[in-house]
């Protein structure tokens, strides 16, 4: 019997050297990596080195994140056939305060941002900087990644859980950026007053990390079919029929579009005037969007969940007294669809956004991506925009029209606007297509979502999403990069953002009610079982050896 067991163990051990497998028995498959990530790791041509900087003396929450990082990277190492190597480094381990400061500044310059953690130890308040991020190196290039991401409106435990859910995507995406040779081509449309230069510099630089980016003046360029994606960012001038036809045929040939459009001409520079009214832009795009299945309404959305804006509310010592008040025309979007584009994102700051309706379009699937809060409303054109209204008390009873969709994903086969119509003059010789192949378009009813502020002193562009009033950086850039990735990626890596790790907290009320019972069970039951076992063994032994 023993010999058979030893032989079986030897056979199993021998087989395991040739047939390796792992089982993930968790309900949500938290320890399994998605197929796109597996394909990426299995196709690596060279070794990838990942240095993790979440190390040292950490609290329980960050230790959990650290363990999740180690588990994910272990799966990466196994799947890649040991081509992924990782190590942990504590930034505070550098000798001397100056060396630590220089090391930490270097990490920030690489894109690994610190987080200030406040703990209580021995009755004293202790603050510490931790770096929940990594630096990924491949082929002589490196990229820093901050792994602590999530909706900051939630509790710290929930933010950490969202960060754990996003680990696979953040790490795999960094590896993909360093290893991909055939980069996608992204065109930033010009010719109709679109954002350009410093106003879009932050988004442009973020795109350059992953894609080849070009400026495309559609009024001069005849053929735009050599781009994978065209981004239209806040046009203010009308599109000619020829320009619309070019975009239409770009879609018919499978091109992707990211449309960031303002419907209303509203600017803060004029908002201090009592007589200022916002009217719709005349972009000549309504019929084109309508054919594709959406309509951006001539209105402005107000939301009680909004960013603050400073106004003068009085005088103190002869100087104006500034007060920051919620400006309902700057809604904070904190509600996203259950979709990889917006999953586990922090709030996004919009400015003068309009509502979007859908209309019938055969063959097109429409998915709302972003919503205002329930405490929102729509104001039809013309809309009075006056910062002096901030002094008035807002009535919550008038803000009950939400949630209002402000962004849509359109997927499927689109029908050309110019089907059964005469083509614009001079374009009747093109190879015209009436029906598209399968493609995707995202429409956001706010052009300012992509505009970054410019530092008034240095004249340098600020980080996209940075709000100077609150000194907080919203998730505008992450959201737009997710949109671009979803539109142009063929490997589907962004779908790994749908990974879910469930938190299963204990019922604290039940714990308090049944504490004494379970303590008694844990303390008494082992002793009782031991006594019963001893008595039973003694009885059986006595019965076995007693002479009859």
Quick synopsis:
The protein has 548 residues and is an alpha+beta fold. The protein is 29% helix and 25% strand. It has an 8-stranded mixed sheet, sandwiched between helices. Strands 2-1-5-6 form a 4-stranded mixed sheet, covered by helices on one side. It has a 3-stranded antiparallel sheet with strand order 11-12-22, with no helix packed on it.
Descriptive report:
With 548 residues, the protein is of the alpha+beta class. The chain has helices at residues 2-16, 35-42, 60-79, 97-109, 156-165, 167-179, 201-208, 241-252, 286-292, 476-488, 508-545, and strands spanning 48-52, 84-88, 115-121, 124-130, 133-138, 141-146, 185-190, 212-217, 229-233, 256-260, 264-265, 277-280, 294-296, 299-303, 306-316, 319-333, 335-336, 348-349, 356-358, 364-371, 376-380, 383-384, 405-412, 439-444, 466-467, 472-473. The strands form 8 sheets. An 8-stranded mixed sheet has the order 8-7-9-10-24-23-20-17, with helices on both faces. Strands 2-1-5-6 form a 4-stranded mixed sheet, covered by helices on one side. Strands 11-12-22 form a 3-stranded antiparallel sheet, with no helix packed on it. A hairpin with a 2-residue loop joins strand 5 and strand 6. The longest helix has 38 residues, at 508-545.
Largest sheet: 8 strands, mixed
Helix % is: 25-40%
The percent range for strand residues is 25-35%
Number of strands: 26
The chain-level structural class is alpha+beta
User: Based on CA inertia axes, which overall geometry fits?
Assistant: globular
